[in-house]
Amino acid sequence: MFPKKPSGSFCEFEAGKLSSGICNADQECELADGEESALDELKKQFSKFQRLFSDWANEETAGLKNYIWLIIGGVLVLMLCCLGCYVANRPAIDQYRKKEKGSSGDGGNVPARNNTTAF
């Protein structure tokens, strides 16, 4: 028969491919973790997490589905970011307004528009 190989050594799992398998603890040849099997495992993990997120998003909490709470939270975070940008840039905005007021001869007042149409 075949000589026994230590576990973890390469063996011939597929005919003609010497390093297509790895010996396990029982000295049996198993398929080696190749690129295809790793990619399949990654796809399985992705679909598992996708199902978990989908199940979580459709659960109800406090009368609303979780994805609605996620949207509300996203809108609040967006509003908070806009407010933070406004507060952080407030000195520059005030400086720009003062410069514009000082450069115009009328003190920054814009004349009223005449809304009548000429036909």
Structure commentary:
The chain has 119 residues and is mainly alpha-helical. The chain has helices at 35-58, 66-103, and strands at residues 10-11, 21-23, 29-31, 60-61, 64-65. The chain folds into two domains: 1-32, no CATH class; 35-100, no CATH class. The protein is 52% helix and 10% strand. The strands form two sheets. Strands 1-2-3 form a three-stranded antiparallel β-sheet, with no helix packed on it. 0% of the residues are buried.
How far from one another are the termini? 107 Å
Whole-number count of domains: 2
- Summed over residues and divided by their number, the pLDDT gives a mean of 80
Largest sheet: 3 strands, antiparallel
Number of helices: 2
Dominant shape: elongated
Secondary-structure map with pairings?
Layout (H helix, E strand, L loop, with lengths): L9 E2 L9 E3 L5 E3 L3 H24 L1 E2 L2 E2 H38 L16
Antiparallel strand pairs: 1-2, 2-3, 4-5
Summarize the structure.
The chain has 119 residues and is mainly alpha-helical.
How would you describe this structure in keywords?
119 residues; mainly alpha; 2 domains; 3-stranded antiparallel beta sheet; two-stranded antiparallel sheet; 5 strands
